[in-house]
Design brief:
Blueprint lengths: L2 H51 L9 E8 L6 H11 L3 E5 L1 H4 L3 H12 L3 E5 L4 H5 L1 H6 L1 H15 L5 E2 L6 E3 L4 E3 L5 H9 L3 E2 L4 E2 L12 H13 L8 E7 L6 H16 L3 E3 L11
Parallel strand pairs: 1-2, 1-9, 1-10, 2-3, 4-7, 8-9
Antiparallel strand pairs: 5-6
Helix pairs in contact: 2-10, 7-8, 9-10
The structure holds zinc ion.
Length: 282
């Protein structure tokens, strides 16, 4: 081959190779840049979108509150009823048999409690421990049992869930506790005779003139604290004791209303009736 022609061909080959290399590199560069920018877009879009488009999930209701009211029906029961029905939460009432028959009005209140889906009726004895003669009541377990049975029969109660008058006593499948030692054998005897006894974790106290001694805010702090420090008989389950008669007072029934509203605002709190408490019976 002519050396000039050969040189020309070699030069042409080099030129072609260089051109291909340049084009390839350029394409590759473009591709890399494009990929990078696509990647940037892919990373940034969903991230910013997730902050605005995905709603935050509601907190799971992991803690259960059992609101209980003792000693009704009495002068405070109607106002308590109105608050509970307005807020539509389930509560448990430990009723005194004798109080149902105390007046026509109280009998009518009892009937409306039974008819309402928000109230569960449980046994607080027929005579409230022989009208608060607690020592006598708990010294003779047989007569105490008869008093609970009389209440159950007269009110047609079948669940056998009772609250002992004047005593914070627990006898369930998993909880056994007696606040005053002298009542222990009576509590054991009642349990052997089929009565599940449910006390309370926290009481909303009142003074001699039937006025609440704690505000709803203070009660709310106590509820939060008991759950946080695991001070309840069963973890994540809290039974609150209140008394109907206190809420005859307008300011105190407003406090009760506020307390329930604030509890409902806490997304992790759920409300239940005492019969739903874990493992009441074997
Ligand atoms: Zn009582």
């Amino acid at each position: 081959m002519d050396p000039d022609r050969e040189a020309e061909q070699v030069a042409s080959q080099i030129l072609r190779t260089s051109f291909i290399t340049v084009v390839f590199t350029a394409c590759n560069y473009y591709k890399t840049e494009t990929t990078a920018s696509v990647n940037t877009i892919q990373f940034s879009l969903p991230d910013s979108a997730s902050k605005t488009a995905v709603p935050s999930l509601p907190k799971k209701k992991t803690k259960t509150i059992y609101l209980t009211f003792d000693d009704g029906p009495n002068k405070g029961t109607k106002k308590m009823m109105h608050v509970v029905q307005e807020e539509q939460i389930p509560v448990t009432l430990f009723i005194v048999g004798q109080h149902v028959y105390g007046s026509k009005e109280q009998a009518a209140i009892f009937d409306s409690l039974v008819a309402s889906k928000y109230f569960e009726i449980a046994n607080h004895s027929y005579t409230h421990a022989f009208q608060n003669k607690f020592a006598k009541f708990y010294t003779v377990p047989d007569s105490a049992l008869k008093d609970f049975v009389r209440c159950a029969d007269s009110l047609h109660l079948t669940a056998n869930i009772v609250r002992t008058p004047g005593r914070n006593i627990w006898r369930t499948a998993t909880v056994s506790s007696t606040d005053i030692n002298s009542s222990k054998s009576a509590a054991d005897s009642l349990y052997k005779n089929g009565l599940t006894q449910v006390g309370w974790d926290l009481e909303w106290h009142y003074n001699d003139t039937l006025k609440l001694t704690n505000s709803s805010d203070e009660m709310l702090l106590q509820v939060d604290s008991m759950f946080a420090h695991n001070k309840t008989k069963t973890p994540d389950h809290l039974i609150i004791l209140a008394h109907d008669q206190v809420y005859a007072d307008a300011a105190d029934s407003a406090e009760l209303h506020q307390f329930i509203i604030r509890l409902k605002q806490k997304e992790e709190y759920n409300f239940e009736m005492v019969s739903k408490y874990p493992r009441l019976k074997n």
